[in-house]
Design goal:
Elements: H1 2-12, H2 17-38, H3 48-57, H4 69-89, H5 104-125, H6 129-160, H7 165-175, H8 185-198, H9 210-213, H10 223-248, E1 255-257, E2 260-262, H11 264-285, H12 291-315
Antiparallel strand pairs: 1-2
Helix pairs in contact: 2-10, 2-11, 3-10, 4-5, 4-10, 5-6, 6-8, 6-12, 8-10, 8-12, 10-11
C-alpha cells in the first residue's frame, strides 16, 4: 500500500507533475526575463509564464473543423505525460531517482522523443498547411540532432561502463565530473548543441519559425490544449537540463557549507538553471539557420565532436 502511495506522490507532487511544472514555468520565466535584458528590453516579469499558462487554461477549448480531433487532442496530453515520466527517472535529490529501471538511459532517450513525435502528429492532424510544414521540418531535424545526442550519451556510457544513470552519477562522485575528462569534452559540447535543437531554441527553432510559418505545428492550438503544450515544453526544458547535469556535471550532490547542510535538490536546481541560461545565451546571440544549414551542421561538426569523444574513450580507457 505504501509503495502505491509513494508512486502517486512521486508522480503528482515531487518530483513529478507539480514540482516539474513549477520549476519548468519558473525557468522559462527566467529565460524570458534574461532574454529581455540581453535585447536591451525590460522583459516580462519572471512569473509571466505562470500567468500565460493560467490564462490559456481558462479560455475556450477550440478544435479546428479540418483537424483529426482524437489525435489533435491526445498529442499534448501524451507529450506532457512523457515529460513528467522522465522527471521520475532523473536524479533530483540524490543519485537514486524516484523510479528505478534497468538501463534507464535507454528508456529516457525513448521518452524524450515522444514530445517531438506528438508535436509532429499534432501538426499533421491540425489540418493547417503551417502545421504540416512545421511537422515536416521537425521530422528532418529530429533525425539529425537525435543522432548527435545519442552519440554523446554513448560516449559517457562507454567511459563509465553502465547504462544506469544512478551509476553514472555515483561514478562522478568518486572520480569527478565527466565534463572535466578531456576525452569527453567534445561529447559535452555536442550534447549541448543537440539540446539546443531538442528544445527548439535559436538557431534551431526551424520547425516553429514564427516569421515564416506562424507557429508551425502549434499554429492551430489554442486555449487549454496550447497551455498543455507550453507546460510540456517547460517541463522538457528542465528535463533535458537535468539529464545533462546528471550525465556530465555530477548530478545532484549534497554539500556542507559552514556547518549548514545543503540538500542535493539545491545543487540540482543550480546546475540545471545554469544549463538553461547557457542555452538562453546561445539563442540570443545567433540567428535562425535554414533547415539545410542545420542538417549540415549537425551531421558534420556536431556529429564529428561526438564521434571523436567516442573514439577517444574506446581507444584510451
Amino acid at each position: 500500500m505504501m509503495e502505491v502511495v509513494d508512486f502517486v506522490f512521486n508522480s503528482l507532487v515531487f518530483p513529478g507533475l507539480l514540482f516539474a511544472s513549477l520549476i519548468g514555468l519558473l525557468y522559462v520565466g527566467i529565460d524570458r526575463k534574461v532574454t529581455g535584458h540581453m535585447q536591451n528590453r525590460i522583459g516580462p516579469p519572471i512569473w509571466q509564464e505562470f500567468f500565460d499558462v493560467g490564462k490559456l487554461l481558462s479560455k475556450e477549448d477550440i478544435t479546428p473543423g479540418a483537424a483529426q480531433s482524437p489525435v489533435f487532442t491526445a498529442a499534448p496530453l501524451v507529450a506532457l505525460g512523457a515529460a513528467v515520466t522522465v522527471m521520475l527517472l532523473l536524479p533530483i535529490t540524490s543519485a537514486q531517482p524516484a523510479l528505478m529501471m534497468v538501463a534507464d538511459l535507454i528508456v529516457i532517450i525513448y521518452l524524450l522523443n515522444i514530445p517531438a513525435i506528438c508535436m509532429m502528429l499534432g501538426g499533421y492532424s491540425s489540418g493547417s498547411p503551417f502545421g504540416a510544414a512545421g511537422a515536416g521540418r521537425y521530422v528532418v531535424q529530429l533525425f539529425s540532432y537525435e543522432f548527435v545526442f545519442i552519440l554523446a550519451i554513448i560516449a559517457a556510457v562507454v567511459r563509465v561502463g553502465s547504462l544506469s544513470l544512478p551509476t553514472i552519477v555515483g561514478y562522478q562522485a568518486q572520480q569527478g565530473w565527466l565534463v572535466l575528462d578531456w576525452r569527453l569534452l567534445p561529447a559535452v559540447i555536442a550534447a549541448l548543441i543537440a539540446a539546443q535543437g531538442k528544445l527548439l531554441r535559436v538557431p534551431f527553432d526551424i520547425p516553429e519559425a514564427e516569421q515564416e510559418i506562424v507557429h508551425g505545428p502549434l499554429t492551430e492550438y489554442s486555449g487549454p490544449k496550447l497551455a498543455i503544450w507550453r507546460l510540456a515544453y517547460d517541463i522538457e526544458t528542465i528535463v533535458v537540463a537535468g539529464l545533462l547535469a546528471a550525465l556530465f556535471f555530477g548530478g545532484p550532490t549534497a554539500h556542507v557549507i559552514s556547518g549548514i547542510q545543503i540538500p542535493g535538490v539545491v545543487d540540482f536546481l543550480i546546475k540545471t538553471i545554469a544549463i538553461v541560461l547557457f542555452t538562453t545565451t546561445l539563442r540570443n546571440i545567433m540567428a535562425r539557420l535554414r533547415i539545410d544549414q542545420a542538417l549540415k551542421f549537425y551531421w558534420s561538426f556536431a556529429a564529428l565532436l561526438a564521434i571523436i569523444s567516442l573514439v577517444l574513450v574506446l581507444v584510451m580507457p
